[in-house]
Amino acid sequence: MQAFDLIIRNANVVTAADGFLCDIGVRDGRIVALGLGLQGAAQEVDARGRTVTPGGIDSHVHLDQPTGDGSVMADDFESGTRSAACGGTTTVIPFACQQKGQSLRAAVEDYHRRADGRALIDYAFHLIVTDPTEDVLRRELPELIAEGYTSFKIYMTYDALKLNDREILETLSVARAEGAMVMLHAENSDCIAWLTERLLAAGHSAPRYHATSRPMLVEREATHRAIALAELVDVPILIVHVSGRQAIEQIRWAQSHGLKVYGETCPQYLFLTADSLGCDDSFEGAKCICSPPPRDAGNQQVVWNGLQNGSFEVFSSDHAPFRYGGPDGKRAHGETAPFSEVANGIPGVETRMALLWSEGVRKGRITPQAFVALTATNAARLYGLYPRKGSIAIGSDADLVIWDEDLDIELTNEMLHHNVDYTPYEGMRLTAWPAMTFARGERVWDGSPLGEPGRGEFLPCARPEPAKARRRESELPE
Ligand code: URP
Ligand code: ZN
Ligand code: ZN
């Protein structure tokens, strides 16, 4: 019997901490040796000195998630995870969203049915808590956290999803008691509703007014409030899809006061602006409707600064796949539908890694190590998947990307494998793309998508690392 199933030779390995040249020995889907001159494998791949990073962990994706408004997500677990693998992501964490009135357990079972036998790469689930009844808070949530659903999202906006401050406090308290990680969608719902009504009354209904209806201050206020509520309860939180300066300032303030407040940002806040929603009243801008909306060039720079200086822990896609053509995506309410009725969200699971490598690492904005931390390692730590996922180390899953780095290609939707009919990043130049992606040692991308649906496994998550460090019971907030 051979010592290894696979050796990847001459790999310029990059982790969140290091960079070194070595061979990677893989057996039974795990990394079992890192060294020079490894011998004895059923299969060998010569990386020829190219960069090899851990496979990406996209810790914010929406797959096959019912919306309840007539729109339908274009990607299920098969197309979404195939697309992820082709772009160098080997683990996704989508959401199991509770409908109001539904038990959390029923939501989780529903999402397992959607994923079972379909995923090409490994996946975990975040919960979305929309109805924190006594039974949910006292029984279901603690039980599910103990079973490996150790993170959940809370919305401060969207009528069908949002919690009020009292409900947020109750839910955060459960996270504190049980050691879970809470993700917050921070936008002030009433401000958005008030602005939306006034815009529509004035006849301003085109997609571009989506950005006007959700200015930075509604995100800043909600981010501030989320931080204050978490401080009161004394629990770590992560603010998701942060779009610009004012929200980042709130996160920095919290971090500088020793609060465990983490930030996530996404490609749309680096590469899109409010102008991407259109400069006239055409419906085309619907392609870039997402919340919070993209801002402007100044805010893009502040988001880059936040990636450089550690304000952000994770860089996720927030892949929310709606088709532009056809009756059930962005046009579910017709092409003349007001912005407030257009499905929120944009695709990005396949382009996240290459965009950040091309624009971040290749342009000298971030180091290769920071890239690995932001796209894989930190998510693994925050969501209880480390060290199985998120690193290149003995014992870790052999989730690996060999990079092609000297490219100059134009990004087009035809290159991609999602089930969406557009990419918001059409026409951007890319200087890098994964040459090969390995998931638990199996090649799932080498220029063509490989791997069978159903090979991806569900990953129960441990309690996140930050949840272990909390204030003592006796200490009260100032
Ligand atoms: O517009 C967005 N971000 N859609 C996806 C749902 C969410 O809030 O993350
Ligand atoms: Zn959100
Ligand atoms: Zn999202």
UniProtKB/TrEMBL annotation:
Highest taxon of source: Bacteria
Keyword Metal-binding applies: yes
InterPro entries recorded: Amidohydro-rel (IPR006680), Hydantoinase/dihydroPyrase (IPR011778), Metal-dep_hydrolase_composite (IPR011059), Metal_Hydrolase (IPR032466), Metallo-dep_Hydrolases_sf (IPR050378)
Comp. bias regions, Basic and acidic residues: 465-478
Maturation and modification: Carbamylation allows a single lysine to coordinate two divalent metal cations.
Entry's Gene Ontology cellular component terms: cytosol
GO molecular function: hydrolase activity, acting on carbon-nitrogen (but not peptide) bonds, in cyclic amides; metal ion binding
Record CDD domains: D-HYD
UniProt keywords, alphabetically: Hydrolase, Metal-binding, Phosphoprotein
Chain segments carrying region Disordered: 449-478
Cofactor(s) it depends on: Zn(2+)
Claim: Hydrolase is one of the keywords in the record: yes
Amidohydrolase-related domain mapped to chain residues: 51-444
Residue numbers carrying N6-carboxylysine: K153
Protein task: Catalyzes the stereospecific hydrolysis of the cyclic amide bond of D-hydantoin derivatives.
Similarity annotation: Belongs to the metallo-dependent hydrolases superfamily. Hydantoinase/dihydropyrimidinase family.
Protein name: D-hydantoinase
Provenance organism: Pseudomonas graminis
